[in-house]
Amino acid sequence: MPLLGCIADDFTGATDLAAMLVAHGMTTVQVIGVPHGPLPEADAVVVALKSRTAPAAEAVAESLAACEALLAAGARQIFLKYCSTFDSTDAGNIGPVADALLKRLQSGFAIACPAFPANGRSVFQGHLFVGAALLSESGMENHPLTPMRDANLVRVLSRQTEGGVGLVPFAVVEQGETAIRQAFTRLRDGGRRYAITDAVTEAHLHALGRACAGHALVTGGSGIAMGLPQNFRDQGLLPDRSDADALPAPRGAMAVLAGSCSRATLAQIGLARLHVPVLELDPLATPDAAALLAEAEAWMEGKLSEARPVVIAASAPPEKVAALQQALGREAAGALVERALARIAAALVARGVGRLVVAGGETSGAVVQRLGIATLRIGPQIDPGVPWTYAETAGAEPAGLHLALKSGNFGARDFFLKAFTA
Ligand SMILES: Nc1ncnc2c1ncn2[C@@H]1O[C@H](COP(=O)(O)OP(=O)(O)OP(=O)(O)O)[C@@H](O)[C@H]1O
Ligand SMILES: O=C(O)[C@@H](O)C(=O)CO
C-alpha cells in the first residue's frame, strides 16, 4: 500500500520526483498514465501524466482519476508534482488541478513550492530564480510550449485560480517548522488557499516538509518532497531502507534522443558532438515525421554500439523553433517532432538499444507511450533529478529496457556521456 500517492504533470517530472523519494528511502514505482487495475507494491507511487500542456479540463479530469486510484490503494497523502520552473500557462494547469484535488480531498489549503536548490531553483520573496537569473530571464521565457515571462509566483498562480494566494517569506521559513506552521494557519484563516513558500536551501525544504506532515495535498517540484519520507518514518509507517534504488544490470546498445530545446540540452548536445556520433534532425527543412524517421534509420545503420552512445536530436535554438511554429502552429510543431522522435525510439529499441536517454518531458511522454511501457522502477540518480529507471512490467516492449528521462533543463554538460558510465 503506498504511503505517498503522487500525480506528476509530465514524465520526466515524475522520474525526478521518484528519484528524490528513492534517495530519501522510499521504494518508488512510476506508473505511466492513469492506473486501471491494482497498483504495484511500493512506499510511493508516482502516476506520470502528460497533462502539463493539455487543455485544463482534461488535465483536471486525468489528475482526479489518478487521485482516486491512489486513494483507493490507501495513499495517506497526495503530492502534485509540477515543474521546478513552474511551467504553465495563464489557463493552467497548476491552479485548476490543485483546486480540483483540494476539493476532492476536502481540504482548503496547500503549499506551492517549486524550489530545488540542487538544480539551482530557489524562491525568494515569492520570485523564482534559475541559478542567478529570474525565471523570466532564464531562457524559460522562450520555452516552446509554456513560455514563463513572470517570475512572481504569487502573481502567476493567482492568474490560474480563484482561490487566494499568499506568501510564506524567507524570514519565516528561516525560523523553521513551528513558525512555518503558524504562517500557514494565518494564511488559511485569512482566506488564502495557497501559500507560495520561499526556499533557498535544503534545510528550508526539510523544515517545510515537516510543516506539511498533516496536509492532505502537497504541491511543488521534487525538492519539497525531500522532507516527506521522514514524516512517515516518524509515524512508524516507513522502515529504514538502504537499497531502495536497486535495479537489474543494464545491457544492450546505448542511445540518446533529444527533443528538449532548453539551453542545458543544447549545451549537452554540443559537448556530445565532440565525442560520439550525433544526428541533428531539421524538422523545419523536413516537416514530416515519416521522412525524419527514414533519415534517422538510414543514419543509425552500423552506428549502434555497446561501447558508446549515439545521439539523435531535433533540438534547436529559439529562432528555429519559432520558425517551425510559425509555419505549423505551436502545438502541431511540437506534436510533429514528438511523433518523429517516438518512432525513432521504437526503431532504436528494435535494433538492440537497451539503454536509452530521452531529453525533454513532452518528448519522454511520447517515447514512453510509443514503447508501450506501463511502469518504471526507479534506480540511482545520474545527476540530481535524473535517475536510471527500468521498464519491468509484463507487456513492456521490450521487457528490461533501461531508460533515463531527462528534464530539459537538468543534467551536467557531459550528461549524455556520463549517463552510460554511471
Ligand atoms: N526543432 C524544433 N522545432 C520546434 N519544436 C521542437 C523542435 N524540437 C523539439 N521541439 C518540441 O519542443 C518541445 C520540447 O518540450 P519537451 O518537454 O520535450 O522539452 P523541455 O520542455 O525542454 O523539457 P522539460 O519539460 O522536461 O523541461 C516538444 O514538444 C518538442 O517536440
Ligand atoms: O521539476 C523539474 O524541473 C522537472 O522535474 C520537470 O518537471 C521538467 O519537466
TrEMBL record:
Residues 4-228 form the Four-carbon acid sugar kinase N-terminal domain. Pfam families: NBD_C, SBD_N. It comes from the Bacteria. One of its GO terms (molecular function) is kinase activity. It catalyses: 3-dehydro-D-erythronate + ATP = 3-dehydro-4-O-phospho-D-erythronate + ADP + H(+); 3-dehydro-L-erythronate + ATP = 3-dehydro-4-O-phospho-L-erythronate + ADP + H(+). Keywords: ATP-binding, Carbohydrate metabolism, Kinase, Nucleotide-binding, Transferase. InterPro entries: 4-carb_acid_sugar_kinase_N, 4-carb_acid_sugar_kinase_N_sf, NBD_C, NBD_C_sf, OtnK. Residues 255-416 form the Four-carbon acid sugar kinase nucleotide binding domain. Signal peptide: none annotated. Its EC number is 2.7.1.217. SUPFAM superfamilies: YgbK-like (SSF142764). Belongs to the four-carbon acid sugar kinase family. Catalyzes the ATP-dependent phosphorylation of 3-oxo-tetronate to 3-oxo-tetronate 4-phosphate. This is 3-oxo-tetronate kinase. It comes from Teichococcus aestuarii.
